[in-house]
Amino acid sequence: MIKKIKKMLPLLLILVVANLLFKGFLVHQYPNSLSSEEITIIKSLPFLKGLNNYHWLRLIPVILSTLTSILAYELAYKKTKLKWLSFIVGLTFAYSPWIFVISRYLNYYIAVTTIVLLISYLLSLIRSSYKLSFLLNLSVLLAFRYFCLNSPWSYKTVVANYGELFKIFDLRNLFFVGDYLSPFIHIPKTGFFLHIEFIPFLFGLVNLMLEKNNREIKKIILYISSLGVIWFFITPENLMISYKGLLIFLGVSLTIAFGYWSLMKKVPAGRFIVLLLLAINIFFYQELFYFHFDRKNSSEWGYAEENISLWLKDNHLSLEHVYVSDDAARFIDYLPYLAKSFDPKKIVILKQDRLQNNWRNDCSGKNRICIVRESDLKLMGLEKNRAKKTINYYNGLPAYFIINR
Amino acid sequence: MRIKNWLILLSLVLIAFSVRVVYLDRVPIGFDWDERSHLYNAYSIAETGKDEWGVQFPLIFKAFGDNKLPLYTYLTAFFVKIIGPSLFSAKITAVICGTLSVLIVYFLTQRLFNNKKISLVAALFMAFSPHSLFFSRIALEPILANLLIISGILFQVCFLKNKKMVNFIFSILFLSLSLFTYHLARIVAPSLIVIFLLTDFIVIKKKFKNIAIFLACFLLSFWLIAYQYSPESLQKLQTAGLFGERKGAVLEINEFRDHHKNNLLSKILHNKLTFISLTLVDHYLSHFSTDFLVNFRPPEAVQQSPFPPLLLIMLPFYYLGLLQMIKEIFSRKNNLIEKAIRIIVIFWVAVSPLPSTITETAPDSRRALGALGSYEVLSAYGLFLLLSTIKNKKRKKTFLSGFFLLYFISLLIFLFNFFAVYPKRYDHIYAYKENQIGSIIKNSYQNYDYFIYSREIANQPQIFALTAINYPPDKYVRKKRWTEKERWFYIQSFDKFFFPDKTTTEVLSKKIFNGKRTALFVTANEYRDIYPSIKNKIVSKKQYRSYATLESGAVKDMFYFITVRL
Q1: Which domain range does residue B471 map to?
Q2: How far is A16 from chain B (nearest CA, A)?
Q3: Which of A221, B114, B225, B347 is least crowded, fewest Cβ atoms below 10 Å from its Cβ?
Q4: Residue B8 maps to a domain
Q5: β-pair type (B538-545, B488-494)
Q6: Is residue A372 within a helix (H) or strand (E), and if so which, with residue range?
Q7: B376-410: per-residue pLDDT in tens?
């Protein structure tokens, strides 16, 4: 046992370090603001409100994701007894763009991934069959779907999802485009996996189909992918592809890892080139994440909402009433977390017709302001330069206008 | 047995012709700019031997300034001469090409696998191929290009099998002809000619006669290829390709560099080499991906098939056939000829997406049409490969029945969508307004002194009037007034027709229209602008609405037909 641990420990340590380095590096700054999803989670889990820093909050998904990588490594090793294949599996779970990005902000879905792998691993320890593991995971997924996703399920969901399934398996979306429906966690010019990984993916797939051995890895991939397809179909139609495809991506990751392993085994001389290409590709997408992600997706994240909350926090004493247009109400969710001193009772939501007809009264006076969007200004017949203050998105475009006549 | 096969093949060809010709005027709904341009130029050639610009038997038709390749127009001219200018005479060339491709696919599969069952199944797949059906029903060149390309491949495979030089000559001839059909052939055909010449050089007996023919074909084909790459033809790449300075990739590079204040790192990472290479690989792979192969894609532009090349049930067999074909190239069981044949097939599959890959709209069903035929051949092969692994006869039968049951269900769903749903849902894309205007002009040409409609309402407005009344081509050459902007021609007027950039009060106040009974076709915006000045002069007004509606129930497209006495 000790011998076995000694054998596994160095690789395990490398995996932990790689995971923490990839996913935890500057996690409090990138993404540079809280998403509305994070705010919703903080609201629903009160104990998180005590944590005043992103850093601590965002360490939760980083840790869960690191655990996912380790569990994938352990599960692959348990089933295949192939140390290097398992290590590559763990490694792909550390750097792949799809898991990298969902590990950097609070969300429930990284926990779903971890739970599925944890159940699979624990049951593999007692040498349980895939069937039991499958059934148990299925019930967990169904329970999560039923209790956590507030959207009715019908056969129409399946029909609507059917075309999407072919889109998710599309090489273009997997390796070049990524989440084609939502820019929220889309790293610019990056797919769910690295660009060059379509080669090991295809190589792995062909090898899995043509070679008669490797039965265990085939079984794991089939098992995870089947769960993935079911999860894809039971989740609501409008859920982000990155979430709907979570478990499918696990299966694809395993195939890619197998592809790398087969490539290195069959073409040992090519190892250096593979590693070099991999390093270049990782550097390329990391640069895209750290320098371009926030700018490209700035309206999807809460940069402007955070700034307006902080402005209200600084000015709350001088304000009696804050009139907010319907369209501009998104920042209100941020107030309890970022501007605790601000009294939410001061906020009055303005419906479109009141805004149009009564804004001159609502927005005038010493202790009153209106917070509106660009579309509201048109309704009010106001030019942008009439705003007392403009709060911008990270990319410099205007998000909120503070009006006081 | 032999007669039975021929009868099945004949029935397939007849069915293929029927499904391509039935409701030709209704599906796709409409007759677009380019189709009408082909028709009018064919009519002009048939009547005068000159195109709409007065050029005698041109090798490139200037048309709207888009430089159309000539073969389709000349073939259409033949039918126009026999049956007169009409929608049918414009489309019948495509219908025949699509039907003939069923036969070619049969013979190609037969030469490849020497198995009549596989060949018949491939022919069946081709007869009902969604892409073949779609492109056989529009009067455009891609289906002709495809027919010539697959014919070239068929004769090449025949040549490799029986070494008869006549097959080689036909093969090169068909591919060379395809260069005069559509821009996709300009990439696919030269690439295929190169690989044919390379494989053939190894195979042919090095006799003087053979080498002479070989060299003659080589020189002829390369002269034609060089001829094709004139500045005029390369213009197409500028408009459709992704390499121009104003294209998405370059704009994206500038944006990303701007994030970095254009520093060295950004120049190293964000440049044309990295971005365009990534885009090219991404575009190329998309042609082999599930989304393109089996998903319905709401059409964003006319002439793009909303239907995928494969019916869903064929997908696994296509991949299996493709994989097996690649594997057989490396198999020791096959001799050199068999390997060469497989290399040719794989090369065909590999180069066909290239014309679409270099465009911004990839995967583009029209530009990737060179691959049509390979889907069917490989799917049929994949199906029989899997079937061959089943030893038990009863299971074999069950498997085959199950497959064909699912195939015919998929087919019925596709045909229902193709003939019943698609025409109404997407009529707004298919030159809806322009076709309505064409019909009105056709029925009431004599009742008006003038017809006015702008480029706001109709792209290339003149072509709808020309083809509606079959305006005499020699008269058109003399009477039209036009301008040229960035190589595109803008017709301003001919005969009773005026085509301003926008119909405004100023346009309508011209003296020439005073007191004349004039037909106006205007958009809602144009109508709102001109209404104050014409409200007392309106004789009648009618609104035309597209079938297609938004989710809110509002129509997607509409226009007003107003009769005024100005």
Answers
A1: 432-565
A2: 29
A3: B114
A4: no
A5: unpaired
A6: strand A368-372
A7: 999 999 999 999 999 899 999 999 999 999 999 99
